[in-house]
TrEMBL record:
Single GO term (MF): heme binding
GO biological process: cytochrome complex assembly
Principal location: membrane
Annotated Pfam families: Cytochrom_C_asm
Keyword Iron-sulfur part of the UniProt annotation: no
Protein name: HemX family protein
Record-linked InterPro entries: Cyt_c_assembly, Cyt_c_biogenesis_CcsA/CcmC
GO CC field: plasma membrane
Sequence ranges assigned to domain Cytochrome c assembly protein in this UniProt record: 67-264
Key words, A-Z: Membrane, Transmembrane, Transmembrane helix
Length: 272
């Protein structure tokens, strides 16, 4: 347990160094700082991957407790961030995504490493494992879509005020930011839908018909609906870029509220 706690702190330090070098590059562009930020972020990904491999080698499923599930969420964020940066080299996005991922990792420090294992153990099954993995991958995509939306709102604000500074010059075009937010949401919505379907099948087998009144399940449907509204409005062209960006941010706040519900003792999902 001590070694696991120390290892997680080491990951946090790597994350912090990546964030610091990314911020340095943002303030004063330099190739070396950018490379170091990427290097430490890759180190974070490797450490997190090694953590999951180690947990699996012990016969544990590393996503079914509150501590490990947030670690997996962070791993998914880092993975998608690295892929996007490798394909498109959006350095300011890497900094913003790093900031979000670091905040999530820091929150995880306040969760006991083995919290929820007593509850998670009897609930373990392949179905619930796939359900949890798909849900957290969907949440990771939603998170990064929100990052793009926030960058869109900041870039739009700076453009309207005609603040032509170095930071604004490093922003991708507003159209590109909005397009990436839409694409990530378009991937996340069907993933969340499949996760909910699998969760309902499992809940019907293990909990019974009363699961329909569970606040977390109701909240998950609300999240699915609000993001579906986003996709619909984006497809039919009913909203402009700012309206879509704000709706994306509000929808992500719904995810946060839903996660808090699952850990407030109001739902059988509190073991996640």
């Amino acid at each position: 347990m001590f070694a696991e706690h120390w290892f997680y702190h080491f990951i946090i330090y790597m994350y912090a160094l990546s964030l610091l070098f990314a911020f340095s590059d943002l303030m004063q562009p330099n190739r070396q700082g950018r490379r170091l930020a990427l290097l430490f972020l890759v180190a974070v990904w490797l450490c997190q991957t090694a953590f999951f491999i180690w947990k699996a080698s012990l016969g544990a499923i590393p996503v079914l407790t509150g501590y490990d599930s947030l670690m997996f969420y962070s791993w998914a964020l880092v993975t998608v961030t690295l892929v996007i940066d490798w394909l498109y080299e959006m350095h300011i996005f890497v900094f913003a995504a790093n900031l979000m991922g670091f905040a999530i990792s820091a929150v995880n420090l306040f969760i006991p490493p083995h919290a929820g294992e007593e509850i998670a153990s009897p609930l373990l099954s392949e179905l619930v494992f796939i359900h949890v993995v798909m849900a957290f991958i969907a949440y990771a995509f939603f998170t990064l879509a929100t990052v793009f939306s926030i960058l869109y709102l900041i870039g739009n604000h700076l453009l309207k005020r005609k603040k032509w500074n170095q930071t604004l010059r490093r922003f991708p075009s507003l159209g590109r930011l909005e397009a990436f937010s839409y694409r990530l949401t378009m991937i996340a919505v069907p993933l969340l839908m499949l996760a909910i379907i699998l969760g309902l099948i499992w809940a019907n087998q293990k909990v019974g018909g009363s699961f329909w009144f569970d606040p977390k399940i109701i909240g998950s449907f609300v999240v699915l609906v609000v993001y579906s509204v986003y996709l619909y409005k984006r497809s039919v062209g009913g909203w402009n870029g700012c309206q879509l960006a704000w709706w994306s941010v509000i929808s992500f706040l719904m995810i946060l509220a839903n996660y808090m519900i699952s850990n407030a003792g109001l739902s059988f999902h509190r073991w996640l």
